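My main concern about presentation is that the manuscript never shows what a single data entry looks like. Each protein is reduced to its one-letter sequence and a matching series of backbone shape codes. For the editor and my fellow referees, an illustration may be useful. For illustration, here is how one protein appears when written out as sequence plus structure tokens:
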Amino acid sequence: MTGTTGTTGTLVLAGTPIGDVADAPPRLAAELESADIVAAEDTRRLRRLTQALGVRTAGRVVSYFEGNESARTPELVEALTGGARVLLVTDAGMPSVSDPGYRLVAAAVEHGVRVTAVPGPSAVLTALALSALPVDRFCFEGFLPRKAGERLGRLREVAAERRTMVFFEAPHRLDDTLTAMAEVFGADRRAAVCRELTKTYEEVKRGPLGELAVWAAEGVRGEITVVVEGAAATGPEELDAEELVRRVRVREEAGERRKEAIAAVAAEAGLPKREVFDAVVAAKNAARTGLAEGKGLS
């Protein structure tokens, strides 16, 4: 559904400091004071932020976090379509980037509500800039799955990714995550662990994944962003049929349909899709032949 913006309000996504309150953009204070409704991931942290900025919220303050996001979105959309200016803030960084906000943005757009943003600090971009890794092309992978098997599966999906990758991780899982990355990407793959960015105890630890995994085993505290170097360019001649089939199988096990998996592997390897398809078919036929021969010998 597409509405008109003449009578609707505005949804403002506001970036908040990821550590140092002095990094708050000047517009943030003005928006906090003028919004009709301030939707905050944590109202207590919002109170501390307004106190630090020396501002008061004149509008209604409501909580908007993962647990009530689905239920509260219709209420906020109703306010927006009625002409309210709604300010959305999360605990740190930009709303909807691994934080609540996506549902509200999508619903607001669907109802023809104007959506704008107050740009602010970003852990993703800050970590990239400090990593000393290539940043001309990068991708953001967010948090990895908590379960070991699912985490390995996700890492295998991006093992051939040539762009620099950015991940968020909890400190108590960093050791396991870096160990899994070293296993899947290779212990020599370069990476950077960025801890407590812009805060008093900010630390950036750079090195091969294998060394970083050993370092993290001693225990690490704080909010963590991990930046990992992309895979080296691999020419078609370096990928034999067995490796092509293996990559297709990994993608299929991760939930991709065979057709899409073949197309993705072909793109990664710089090969025609037909060549990857033929390798998959040949492997399937070889498996059938081996099974038939085994039955004949039994």
